[in-house]
Amino acid sequence: MCVGIGPTKTLAKLANHAAKKRLAGQDGVCDFLSMQPGELTRLLAGIPVGQVWGIGRKYTVRLEEMGITTALQLRESDAETIRARFSVVVERTVQELRGVSCLELEEVVPDKQQIMCSRSFGTLVYERAELEEVVASYIGRAAQKLRAQDALAGALQVYVQTNIFKPEAPQYQKGLTVPLPEATSDTRVLTAWALRILRRIYRPGYGYHKAGVMLVDITPKGSQQFSLFAPSGVASARSGKLMEALDGINQRYGRGTLRVAAEGVEKGWQMRRGNLSPRYTTDWAGLPTVSAS
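Given the sequence above, the corresponding structure tokens read:
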């Protein structure tokens, strides 16, 4: 873990970058507030402009065409010229690099507009039945996150792909987004639709390396619009109570204690975790032991 400290949000993020790259500070901590002006100037002169938060790849190319290649040069550039050639957002970045705070800190994490769950497999998956377990498991996790922010999803995306890092193997990737008849956070409903999408995009004969699901068109639960032709209000209330019980049990006894049958049991496709860091503070089994001998 690395910590960056600065007088503005942009400088704090840049300090965090410097800490990660061991450009300044010790023990993973970089504090711009404690640096002398000359020391900070030398540090910014060695950081590429593309590493500045908010400066993407396209902006980097255009800035380099103007001769601005480092964070220091961006800080010393004319703010009005930057605003005229780019946008007010980039101008604010220049001001932030000068120590003038222009961006508010988020004291409350905003609700997600999209929720995605995607992983690479530990082994290649060929059968559709196994892919269905994968997709159902990802939907279960994504739906739990959706309910945690008290929201509903109005559309669902599923995608699958082969290993793009092995071009000698047959390649295939496909994704499909489908709007739902009613926005929902019910794992059962989302799983049913996800499996329908998977059956449309699945092609036999390929070794699939990765799959993912994404919940989109997310809206607050309180603004739910029910179907005009179906008495959804009662069904939605029952669904909500069931999902509340599901989340309560999993929160108390551990994730995956209670899940839909479509997720399977063995899950041999799960990604490899041989290099997983020990969980000293969250798992009793992860505590180090001392032998008496």
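The domain at 115-263 is CATH 3.30.1490.100 (Dna Ligase; domain 1). Try to locate this feature in the token string yourself.
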